[in-house]
Amino acid sequence: MTGRSDDRRVRIYEVGPRDGLQNESTPISAADKLRFIELLADAGLREIEATSFVSPKAIPQLSDADELLAALPRREGVRYPVLVPNERGLARAEAAGVDAIAVFTAATDAFAEKNIGMTVEESLAAFAPVLARARELGWWRRAYVSTAFGCPYTGRVKPQTAVDVARRLLDLGVDEICFGDTIGVGVPNQVGELVNLAQGAGIRVSRQAFHFHDTRGTALANVTASLAAGVRTFDSATGGTGGCPYAPGAAGNLATEDLVYFLDASGWTHGVDLDGVLAAARFIADRLGKPLSTKVGQAGGWDHQTGRATGREAEPRP
Ligand code: COA
Ligand code: ZN
Questions:
Q1: What is the pLDDT of residues 276-286, one digit of tens each?
Q2: Closest by CA position to 106, among listed 52, 148, 58, 141
Q3: Would you tell me which of 10, 22, 118, 262 could form a disulfide with 122, CB atoms 3.0–4.6 Å apart?
Q4: Is-catalytic flag, 244?
Q5: Which residues does ligand 1 sit against, CB inside 6 Å?
Q6: What are the tens digits of pLDDT across the range 151-169?
Q7: Under CATH, what is the fold of the domain 11-310?
Q8: pLDDT tens, 31-57?
């Protein structure tokens, strides 16, 4: 316990196993995905988006979702949401014994059509029965609004457009709205404007989450702006992987290690251990056959007592 008030508590929602891996061409085995998820839970992450129940043609890397969930050891206190695009995905999720889902649409029709083959309006109609059933089952429900700041096909997105979609999703009974900067074009003043507009539309900050990609190096600045505006939930991917195959130009998610270092040093509590995240980051980078290129992955953490870098040699725990 730190004695700090709850207002200094941040939720880190890990998307590495899902958003992080979905666009990677090196196939990762289900056993390695499970190991990655276990390392993330060991690091203290309590919300780990595990996979997607989408078309295997759309996202080949995650085509083992059923097998993965069947083998995933659930830990007390850890939530493992999965992406569900339609009723078929819901049925698969139900068979897999999940208790948390995320539906996903976009602020723009152009992106939604490429990503899920539906206009925004069509996606809302498709989600209605999915969310109603998930509610009946007592599942936790999140909805993503992708391209909330900009669309790779139609350019700049007005914040009101993203908020209008979010409000419709809230009316369909989701617990949380996640605004996604899918291609990493947003900057802090836009974030503040979006948070305030969403609040004005009745979407409390406690129901808002932000999902930043660090494509142009603005992700942590955007986190700072969100925190100042009252938001306390952020998505990140250990190892800084990520991107959507339907979002040309998208680069990695905000790296969990970069976020954890930043939050620790700024006095926010979150329950996640940096060395544990670095161990998981090294593990997945190794399996992807890539060097770990995130800032804190390279530099390590920093022990303010000794002035030395920390966690650079952290290995996955046996
Ligand atoms: N799980 C598995 N297979 C599914 C599925 C699901 N949830 N939903 C549809 N399919 C299958 C269909 O059976 C069909 O298979 P077939 O070609 O062998 O007959 C095929 O996928 C196409 O389905 P269809 O209903 O015609 O829809 P579509 O081609 O317009 O695709 C989605 C719609 C939503 C299924 C597809 O676009 C998708 O899965 N998108 C996800 C993209 C994603 O995850 N992006 C990253 C997250 S940001
Ligand atoms: Zn993303």
A1: 999 999 999 99
A2: 148
A3: 118
A4: yes
A5: 22, 52-55, 57-59, 83, 85-86, 88-89, 92, 104, 115-117, 146, 244, 246
A6: 999 999 999 999 999 999 9
A7: TIM Barrel (3.20.20)
A8: 999 999 999 999 999 999 999 999 999
